[in-house]
Amino acid sequence: MTSKDISQYRLLNQRLTGTEYTTPHQLVKWMGCIQAQDYGMAKWAVGCRLQQATDATVEKDFNEGKFLRTHVLRPTWHFVSPEDIRWMLKLSAPRIRAFARPYHRQLGIDATILRKSKKAITKALTLDKKLTRPQLTEILRKEKVDTTDTRMGLLLIDAELDALICSAGRIGRQFAYGLLYENTPQ
Questions:
Q1: In a designed cystine with 5, which of 1, 20, 171, 174 is the match (CB 3.0 to 4.6 A)?
Q2: How confident is residue 19, by pLDDT bands cut at 50, 70 and 90?
Q3: What phi and psi, each to the nearest 5 degrees, are found at residue 2?
């Protein structure tokens, strides 16, 4: 096998050439997950692997929950299909929690705080269905949960790892969260 053969196979296997996929959901499902820390570039990574896609079509599918953005492989964002999120979280959550544990200790986040934050998040999302991070931050502050420094991100990741919340598209330019069981029924 030559270097050219290897590069051709890589392009084909990464669906950068000869793709048969027409929707973001099909592609994300086939790929398993796609790193999505930089949202704009992640949308581009999806779009360039489809037969015909625009920024608007990829954004529309994301906002409709046809693919999700979550912390599924490590503490960075990934796109994943709704059908795969639960089993992926079940496999990856213990490792991500182990990674987060020293940060929790350093910031004083314990089991009591995690329970309190998840209870408040669940209550809020049961009432409003879809809330942005700033809205959830305000709700937790009213419940006397410290959200300063990187605490809010860690609290949200923990709720994701428990399969409690997931991305719920965007509200304007802000990413939103919803309850996983409402956004991706089993």
A1: 1
A2: confident
A3: -95, 170
